[in-house]
UniProtKB/TrEMBL annotation:
<comment type="similarity">
    <text>Belongs to the prokaryotic/mitochondrial release factor family.</text>
</comment>
<keyword id="KW-0809">Transit peptide</keyword>
<keyword id="KW-0496">Mitochondrion</keyword>
<dbReference type="GO" id="GO:0003747">
    <property type="term" value="F:translation release factor activity"/>
</dbReference>
<feature type="domain" description="Prokaryotic-type class I peptide chain release factors">
    <location>
        <begin position="280"/>
        <end position="379"/>
    </location>
</feature>
<dbReference type="InterPro" id="IPR045853">
    <property type="entry name" value="Pep_chain_release_fac_I_sf"/>
</dbReference>
<dbReference type="InterPro" id="IPR052405">
    <property type="entry name" value="Mito_Transl_Release_Factor"/>
</dbReference>
<dbReference type="GO" id="GO:0032543">
    <property type="term" value="P:mitochondrial translation"/>
</dbReference>
<dbReference type="InterPro" id="IPR000352">
    <property type="entry name" value="Pep_chain_release_fac_I"/>
</dbReference>
<protein>
    <recommendedName>
        <fullName>Prokaryotic-type class I peptide chain release factors domain-containing protein</fullName>
    </recommendedName>
</protein>
<dbReference type="Pfam" id="PF00472">
    <property type="entry name" value="RF-1"/>
</dbReference>
<dbReference type="GO" id="GO:0005739">
    <property type="term" value="C:mitochondrion"/>
</dbReference>
<feature type="region of interest" description="Disordered">
    <location>
        <begin position="233"/>
        <end position="252"/>
    </location>
</feature>
């Protein structure tokens, strides 16, 4: 008797739901958080129940959340892990139920056995960040921790993440390690790479329970993963920087000695000490800050961490970026200094060009004058 060929079902069993940030939240984070669960495979509750202690506080703090429950159909001869990865990518390719498609790759958070699925997905698809909570410490240990899910050991993951990753442990999981003879020096692959990058032994990220790990996760997302606030632009945006300085000989848009409307409406002020580094005191409410991954020389401190600072002045749409140092905090200070000089240049250019010279324009004029004298000297030497 001929066996019928296996055909996939047209009805997708996996679900991807969306939970928006609270309407009255002070801030809104543009990058969504993705929580993964596989209840039919791992026997855990659905994602809405598994991560329930975090959902309401995250919405209050401005985070949008996507909840993914995987239930793939496994063709004969296909590994469950490969089917999970394929099902996850196909489900995330479509907008979630009740929500828009994410503007950026999500930050993936997995717990327990679902961490193996998360690592399989992260090895092939981009993410903003990856956090594993109580994962199998290795694929060899996975057969001991979850014998029904992993009857035989699978190959270890060897991918090198191009985004921030970390592993966090709860006290109940660490107690299971001690009870089953897992030595203290045996760590997860991601923890081992973190120690190699630092050149020393580092403390683990430990929580008393999963419920108490929310604040630590938010701090990590903001400090290491580059999560920043998104402020809504004003209803009547002012002209951009290019439009403001396009014609220097035209009549000034603002009379000399006065300031633009955004300067008067916000908490701005000219430096009273005549500082050239920061001639204008900025209003942080009008700044949109984002941390992005750096590039170029500098090692892992640049290429694996979001130390590059992008600062946008919302009223004028002026944008500056800074990657001068390996420290994000120093880059934030330098970016604000550059923004202060740029805004001072915009204000004085809105007056008549001869009404005043900004710090930035004075620096440009000085460089031009230096190059002019250099060319003049070279011409003299050639003539003689």
């Amino acid at each position: 008797m001929r066996r019928a060929a296996w055909r996939p079902s047209l009805r997708r069993l996996s679900t991807l739901s969306y939970r928006a940030a609270a309407a009255d939240c002070v801030r809104e984070v543009p990058t969504p958080l993705l929580f993964v669960a596989a209840p039919a495979w791992s026997g855990t509750p659905p994602a809405r129940e598994l991560y329930k202690p975090w959902l309401e506080p995250l919405a209050t703090r401005g985070f949008s959340v996507m909840l993914l429950d995987l239930a793939p159909e496994v063709p004969p001869g296909t590994s469950v892990l490969a089917a999970m990865e394929r099902e996850m990518s196909a489900t995330l390719a479509k907008p979630p139920q009740g929500g828009p498609p994410p503007p950026f790759p999500p930050a993936l958070i997995a717990r327990g056995a679902a961490c193996v699925v998360a690592e399989a997905y992260a090895s092939s698809f981009p993410l903003t960040a990856l956090q594993l909570v109580d994962p199998p410490i290795s694929m060899q240990r996975a057969t001991q921790r979850y014998p029904s899910l992993f009857p035989s050991a699978l190959p270890e993951f060897t991918f090198e993440a191009q985004f921030p990753v970390r592993v966090a442990w709860t006290q109940p999981e660490l107690a299971w390690h001690a009870e089953h003879g897992v030595p203290w020096y045996e760590v997860h692959r991601i923890e081992h790479e973190r120690e190699d990058a630092a050149g020393e032994c580092l403390d683990r990220y430990e929580w008393a329970s999963f419920d108490e790990g929310l604040d630590d996760t938010i701090r990590w997302l903001e400090d290491e993963a580059g999560f920043a606030l998104r402020l809504d632009a004003p209803e009547t945006p002012t002209p951009t920087r290019t439009e403001s300085v396009r014609d220097e000989t035209a009549a000034p848009a603002v009379p000399a000695g006065t300031v633009p409307a955004w300067f008067s409406a916000g908490h701005y002020a000219f430096a009273t000490d005549g500082s050239k580094k920061r001639p204008i005191i900025l209003d942080e409410r009008d700044l949109q800050e984002r941390f992005i991954r750096g590039s170029g020389p500098g090692g892992q401190a640049i290429n694996k961490l979001s130390t590059n600072v992008e600062l946008v002045h919302i009223p004028t749409h002026t944008r500056v970026t800074c990657q001068h140092t390996r420290s994000r905090q120093q880059n934030r200070e330098i970016a604000r200094r550059l923004m202060s000089q740029r805004l001072e240049w915009l204000i004085k250019q809105s007056w008549h060009p001869r009404a005043g010279v900004s710090v930035l324009q004075a620096r440009i004029d000085k460089i031009r004058q230096r190059k002019y004298h250099k060319r003049k000297k070279q011409h003299r030497s050639v003539v003689t």
